[in-house]
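User: quick one, fold this
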Amino acid sequence: TLTKGEFGIDTIVVGEGVTEEQVLKTAASVNSQSEHPLASAMVKEAQKRNIALLDIKDFVRIGGRGAKARIENSEVYVGNESFLKENNIQVSAEYQNKIDMLSKQGKTVIFVVVDKKLIGSIALADVIREESREAIKTLKTLGIRTAMVTGDSEDVAAWVSKEIGIDEYFAKVMPDQKAEKVKLLQSKGQKVAMVGDGVNDAPALTQADLGIAIGAGTNVAIESAGIILVKSDPRDIPKIFNLSRLTYNKMIQNLFWATGYNVVAIPLAAGALASYGIILQPALAAVFMSVSTVIVAFNAVLLRRAKL
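Assistant:
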């Protein structure tokens, strides 16, 4: 949502006795059946290098972690570091330092494990959308606090938040935990507007006080949201709040106008001033009533001239 989603291979860190081609070939083969942007980037890089992919079996997508499959007689996992910790796969200090350095640069690191042995890692870089910076800046001027929920590592989340000025972030969040983060913010007495575009965002969009879906997102996300951004431009998010405030102001203006008008006009039409010789004819009263409706409608139409 905040980045372009156009990942590219930045660095391949190899294990002992393994080449970059072997690491990329294995990762791309497993990811050949995945639609995730990271997976697509690895497959494209393999194709760019003219690397022939291997046949895989028993492909399984692991939500929030990666994917696994069988290549020949080996079980292969390609994904984030959660798998390493769950299976107690050890990494040397030197290797870990390289990974930490890449993570602190805002790169997403994917690990390639064959038969529970780490053979290498692939660091991918994404580009922050300039529109995202502008959107966050505008939201701050409106007095709106921002938070980011991501499945990326702590280092990547911290880097992105710092780059675009996000107030708070939640890193390493599993797909089924996003709604819980929304509940956490709501438990603090905050009204939450959630912006998302994927299937995994649907529960959080439903849980939020206001769900905003990116138009280019999945149908599930769009169905779960209350507002859809047709242009898929983050800069339209502040416009939603501006439009809401302007609309509310117009409602208050029209309410006061209609109330004030009727407070004066109804007694007049009922003959309140008849003793003074002032009598409002029914036909003229009907005209005045129509004028009131026209003025309210005209005031509402002026909203179209407002700059969002």
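User: anything notable?
Assistant: The two ends are 21 Å apart (CA to CA).
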